[in-house]
Amino acid sequence: MLKRLILCALIALPLGVFAQELKIAHVNTQDVFNAMPETSTVESEMAKQNQFYTDELKRMQDEYQRKYTEFQQSDSLPESIKIRRMQEIEDIQQKIEAYYQESRQQLQKKQSDLLAPIQKKIMDAIKAVADENNYTYVMENGAFLYTSPKSIDATSLVKTKLGIK
């Protein structure tokens, strides 16, 4: 029994030493992102792009509505012309749907392209703070169901590293 107790103590001793060297911090990257001046530039650029696509889509929808109204009012046209105009209306509708899908994809790509340098800048700052403070792990707040009050919040250090208040 005493041998088991000594053996358990010897096995647990290195684990206790390791646990004392482990430093864990957490960072609220959303808070850092929102505080960065580049964020407002991205939001402004995305709003402009979105407005451009919205205006073009509205123009296409207005054209569709105009042609559809004309079609409904053309009772006395020959059947062949009605069929051709109906096909034109269907073509416009398909173009609108395709444009909508394409615009959403382009907006997502633009947003991704604009955010990538900001995300890299944040990650570089987190790595620098972790290296300077000897953190073994730096985690995102949202990834935890529970964060110990003893956990180190490195958000302010990352903001300082990025030069934001």
Short description:
By secondary structure, the protein is mainly alpha-helical.
Q: What do these coordinates show?
A:
The protein is mostly helical. It has five helices and three strands; from the N terminus they run αβαααββα. It has helices at 2-21, 29-35, 37-72, 79-133, 155-162; strands at 24-27, 137-140, 152-153. It has a three-stranded parallel beta sheet with strand order 2-1-3, with helices on one face.
Topology:
Blueprint (H helix, E strand, L loop, with lengths): L1 H20 L2 E4 L1 H7 L1 H36 L6 H55 L3 E4 L11 E2 L1 H8 L3
Parallel strand pairs: 1-2, 1-3
Helix pairs in contact: 2-5, 3-4, 4-5
List keywords for this structure.
rod-shaped, mainly alpha, 5 helices, 3-stranded parallel sheet
- Quantity of strands, as a count: 3
Compute the gyration radius: what is it? Answer: 30 Å
Characterize the largest beta sheet: strand count, sense, and whether it forms a barrel: 3 strands, parallel
Q: How far apart are the first and last residues' alpha carbons, in Å?
A: 59 Å
Number of helices: 5
β-strand percent reads 5-15%
